[in-house]
UniProtKB/TrEMBL annotation:
Pfam families: GcrA
Domain of life: Bacteria
UniProt feature, compositional bias: Low complexity: 51-67, 83-93
Protein name in UniProt: GcrA cell cycle regulator
Chain spans, region Disordered: 49-134
Gene3D superfamilies to which the protein is assigned, alphabetical: Homeodomain-like
Segments of skewed composition (Basic and acidic residues): 68-80
Species the sequence originates in: Allosediminivita pacifica
Amino acid sequence: MSWTDERVELLKKMWSEGQSASQIAKELGGVTRNAVIGKVHRLGLSNRAGAAPAPAAAPAAAAAAPVKEAKPVKEPRPEPEIAEPVAPAAAAEPEPEPAIPAAEERPAAAPVSRTGKTIVPAGQPLPPQPSANEISPEALAKVSEVEKKAKKLTLMELTERTCKWPVGDPATPDFWFCGLPVQQGKPYCEAHVGVAFQPMSSRRDRRR
DNA sequence: CCCTGATTCGC
DNA sequence: GCGAATCAGG
């Protein structure tokens, strides 16, 4: 692959949006994150922050790079009141893919006050949290177990290979994501995949 | 271990 | 100019 104008533009866009080199590389395809980083440097748009204007040393790099930043700082949440963490009727679609929150996206603003308290916004994308519905007791038991040894990651710590299963009330400090290694291709660890993706077979309810 | 960006240097 | 290898860090 080569750096066509389009690709370079996408690169610039994503980079200024705060996307990581690896994410950009994936998006572009045909290039590694190294290639992306290399290109970024050659383009002279290294520093992404509008801050830290190189204090006392090496203002060197990117001297000829205007880099117009338009920090897309998104409002954490205009609406402070969140109704209730009601147990969302278990997402039991024949075609799985319970589209979790937008955990993938780079949170523009860290929902963490420097007082240590983690203030999770918990916008509208309320996750699965299946109610003890028609899920095998085994699977549920498994989940309980797993939650004990979960990594308890914060939103920002999630990656593509960490279980994105949410635990607790998003409105409290006791909210976290499982964080255990995900199952190949899935967004959750084995245990949580078990309750997140129900085989249609078990969904057949009392004949129609 | 997973990830991040930064630099170097042969091509 | 390009990007793998490497470095330095979280």
